[in-house]
Design goal:
One of its GO terms (molecular function) is glycosyltransferase activity. With about 180 residues, this protein is α/β, with parallel strands linked by helices. Helix content is about 25%, strand content about 30%. It has one domain: Rossmann fold, CATH 3.40.50. The longest helix has 19 residues, at about 10-30.
Length: about 180
């Protein structure tokens, strides 16, 4: 079975995309005094950290950043043959009446975002929740979930997958690939 890879975003274009997303967030959230960022485990945290760093540098102030694990809130949790291992949840601030930006790398079916909404309620009731994704896989949604901020929209088949490579995970450069398995 041959695997074909197509580059969606290289390191330079990805940096430009992240800068644009940060500008959009600043337009909406101003100085982030009433807002916070929650990176969705496991892969959304790398994007959340990059966005967080860029925002703090641009705004010259501390911004709340947390990690949210949705493992036990997934609707397929008990259907898996191999038990899944939970990741760290770290929300060192109150989200009650706060604007929360959920961040994930790829939006596919929407089920992980739905699980994140359930997991987030354990930390309080936010004033508003927005979704930022790097890649929006159009035409594959199982649930009526749409991102507020999108790095790039990619039309994909269900058989394809999006591979996100982060330097923070040991890769040479940050890159996004579309993988075809034939």
């Amino acid at each position: 079975m041959a695997i074909q890879k197509k580059l969606i975003l290289d390191s330079d274009l990805l940096d430009i995309t992240l800068s644009r997303l940060c500008q959009q967030l600043i337009e909406t959230h101003n100085d982030f005094a009433e807002s916070a960022i929650l990176g969705m485990q496991p892969r959304g945290i790398y994007l959340a950290e990059l966005i967080h760093q860029k925002l703090e540098k641009a705004l010259r102030k501390k911004i709340n950043l947390g990690y949210l694990d949705v493992t036990f809130h997934r609707d397929d949790f008990r259907r898996r043959e191999i038990p899944v291992k939970a990741n760290e949840t770290r929300v060192p601030f109150l989200i009650e009446n706060r604007n929360v930006v959920l961040i994930d790398d790829v939006l596919f079916t929407g089920r992980t975002v739905r699980a994140a909404m359930d997991a987030m309620i354990a930390f309080g009731r936010p004033k508003k929740v927005e979704l930022l994704v790097l890649i929006d896989r159009k035409y594959n949604r199982d649930l009526p979930i749409a991102p507020d901020y999108v790095g790039k929209v990619v039309n994909t088949l269900a058989s394809q997958r999006v591979q996100v490579e982060w330097q923070a995970q040991g890769n040479k450069q940050n890159k996004i690939w579309l993988i075809n398995q034939e």
